[in-house]
Amino acid sequence: MIKYQQIAIEIEKYIEDHALQQGDKLPVLETLMTQFQVSKSTITKSLDMLEKKGVVFQVRGSGIFVRRHKRRGYISLLSNQGFKKDLEDFNITSKVIELEVRKPTQEAAYNLNIELDADVYYVKRVRYINGQTLCLEESFYNKSIITYLNNEIVSESIFHYIREGLGIKVGFSDKYLHVDKLKEEEAKYLGLKKGEPGLYDETIFHLTNGQPFDFSKITYNYEQSQFFIQANSHFL
Amino acid sequence: MIKYQQIAIEIEKYIEDHALQQGDKLPVLETLMTQFQVSKSTITKSLDMLEKKGVVFQVRGSGIFVRRHKRRGYISLLSNQGFKKDLEDFNITSKVIELEVRKPTQEAAYNLNIELDADVYYVKRVRYINGQTLCLEESFYNKSIITYLNNEIVSESIFHYIREGLGIKVGFSDKYLHVDKLKEEEAKYLGLKKGEPGLYDETIFHLTNGQPFDFSKITYNYEQSQFFIQANSHFL
DNA sequence: TAGTGGTCTAGACCACTCA
DNA sequence: GAGTGGTCTAGACCACTAT
Asked: Of A59-63, B8-12, B91-95, where does mean pLDDT reach its minimum?
């Protein structure tokens, strides 16, 4: 494990274990340097990571402080994978509606940057949170990258399998959101009525080398889902 | 201007001026170091910023590549200020419904971390994009920080005034989103019908020292608004 | 003005990609 | 194995905060 990651993890763990609150002060750089026996740059890098993750904020001339948002049960829109992490305390389950190898739709081919006659794994699932319908999900996986899926994998966390089972490193993702009225079929799966609100999420996941491998369309049940995003002003 | 910021700006400008596309390769670190006459760490810092901003992605052993999402007209949920920036090509206007100093609601006091008898500027606006209603916005500004507002300021970009006029540095923000059916009054302002979908955004803006100064509640017209978020996997 | 974080350097060494 | 990005160091100096 890389030093700055390890340190970041330990600092975050320290904050959780001691139940520190927003605004609580962490030890100064000097102290952290000697405590972890690393150079200033390394500590700085750790803290930058934690700042980016929304765990701390640093104030020049003053100190390093804990950042905590006040609301629980919100899904992070930055997690870049399933929402397992944010909702650890909740019971997430899935029902697989469809799983097959097929040709991509035009939209999927475009977003995955593949030909119309390439193969994709098509997965359609309904996901539940504490027994309530959370969302309807349709995913297209580039089969030349995600070479194998089966019903068992797809019933659990697909991303866990991709990462651990296939050893694939996920790079970055582009997420597009909009709100609209539910169509008849979507409403049916979500246990809602046609015309009720739905949050539509389209996300394209890329490998570390920039190649798209997953195009997912998710429709959220508005009654069960709320989201949060922590932003920093560090980029203009 | 700090070196790494300046370099980041220049690289981004280079990408735009040359209309580089997703996957296009930038010069290698060595080249950038000599070109900008700075050390490796400085270039690295610039590139890390651009990576965080979703402008490039770096692949170890391979190179530095341009990252571009394909869709235009989406509002970035990370911009941490008005959406002026993303929608530069669009004509954003505002109609001020209400502007006054008052006592905060319980909710506003909680989120701004102030007493119920403190003073806040209350601003209610409808915002338009190309003449269509984009959103209804209610904001509470801690008056001990945002000491003065008037009708003219509030008709324009409030954040521009806060930054330039008051010289206040914005630190970070916590944004919470959910979807629901519009209430009668909200629908009226947005030119929609009661019960139609609405996207509700609550954001708390903080100073660089962590103090909240703005609590804003925005209801978006679902017909006019779409959003995007670029995520990196650099934090686990 | 003391304390604290931010920027920058020069250079060593490591880890991954790709031909 | 050559090329390229990532990690880490030790130390100088700068900029902001608090008192």
From this structure: B91-95
Interface test with A, best of B72, B88, B135, B172 (most A CBs within 10 A): B172
**Could you give the CA distance from residue A73 to residue A220 in angstroms, rounded to a whole number?**
15
B59 CB neighbours strand C below 7 A: yes
Residues B16, B45, B9: CA angle, nearest 5 degrees? 25
Q: Find, in chain A, the residue whose alpha carbon is nearest to that of B171.
A: A233
Q: Which residues of B touch A70 (CB under 8 A)?
A: 111, 174
Residue of chain B with shortest Cα separation from A23: B210
Distance from CA of A144 to the nearest CA of B (A): 19
Q: Do B179 and A222 touch (CB under 8 A)?
A: yes
- pLDDT tens digits, A45-101: 999 999 999 999 999 999 999 999 888 888 889 876 666 555 566 788 899 999 999
- Is the Cβ pair A176, B79 closer than 8 Å? no
- Report the greatest alpha carbon distance in chain A: 62
The residues spanned by each domain of chain B are: 3-66, 75-228
- Using only C-alpha atoms, chain A has a radius of gyration, in whole angstroms, of 21
User: Any idea which fold A75-228 has?
Assistant: Chorismate lyase (3.40.1410)
Q: Is nucleic acid strand D under 7 Å from B61's C-beta?
A: yes
> Would you state the CATH architecture of domain B3-66?
Orthogonal Bundle (1.10)
| pLDDT, chain A, mean | 92
Nearest to B128 by CA among B90, B180, B183, B174: B90
Chain B residue with minimal CA distance to A227?
B177
Residue B29, C-beta contacts closer than 8 angstroms, at least 6 positions apart: B40, B43, B44, B64
Kind of pairing between the strands at B75-76 and B226-232: parallel
Q: Which residue among A23, A69, A209 sits closest to B174, beta carbon to beta carbon?
A: A69
Cβ proximity of B210 and A59 under 8 Å: yes
Long-range contacts of A10-18 (CB under 8 A, 24+ apart): A10/A36, A11/A46, A11/A47, A11/A50, A11/A55, A11/A56, A12/A50, A12/A53, A12/A55, A15/A55, A15/A56, A15/A66
pLDDT the model gives residue B38: 97
- Report the pLDDT value the prediction gives residue B69, as an integer from 0 to 100: 86
